[in-house]
What we know:
alpha/beta, Rossmann fold, four-stranded parallel β-sheet, GMP Synthetase, Chain A, domain 3
Amino acid sequence: MAPSLGPGPAPGRDGWHDGTVTATPTGTDLETKLARLRADLGALGRVVVACSGGVDSALLAVVAHQALGPSALAVTAVSPAVPAAEVAQVEELAAEFGFRWRRVETAELDRPGYVANAGDRCYHCRSELFDVVAPLAAAEGAAVAVGTIVDDLSDHRPGQRAAAERGIRTPLADAGFTKSDVRAAARALGLPVWDKPAAACLASRIPYGTPVTLTTLDRVGRAEAAVRALGFADVRVRHYGDLARLEVPLADLPRVLDRRAEVVAAVTGAGYFYATLDLEGLRSGNLNAALSEMIERHE
Length: 299
């Protein structure tokens, strides 16, 4: 018999009707991690989940609702660095699964360290989010939790320092969730974002050392939205002044070339003069690799 993933909706999506996973060697392990997650969230009593709309934080928001009901609140940052479509998707998810949710306005661009866009930009971004959420959590008498997973612990993520300084909880990582665990659990529980590509904030498209401005964020956001409208769901537009460097999965490279004129028009229509295509394909967080090389050169 397939191991149950516990309480959750039965949405009947993609052949998943009963909130279970098939009996695979990892099924029991996933069940154990979900049980640990629910127990940890239940022990918190009340929690505010920072939900960006990605699969990690979406899963955390849904399971927190299952464990705590109205004692769980999900919040989503609204700022120029967050595409409006991401916020709308979280709102739809909250309506579908019935969890408490609200927007919170953040002002990263008021922080000089964020605008400077050095290697610690994410520290200033997360500090802004946590400082905005703190009074709300205090009013709720709740802990604050984020969707950090085990995979995140080995990457360059200065935001984790901001979280550690403020005692932010990381229930998924504590329960041992990897990205594959998260996707499996999210699919079994019927989350429509279970296979959603990773999507960091728009500032992550700007090379370190290039200041983050409202104009740049708007240009990147409009360019990515225009390319996605052509049917390319997973795309990054890296900003280099008047030049945009597009990253798509390797399998999509031929399609981009086949629709070259449309893609160029989409990018230049957003304000860029030049549109280039990265032949190495999409590499999430590749600007972090460039940062590491820069640091090594100067050591």
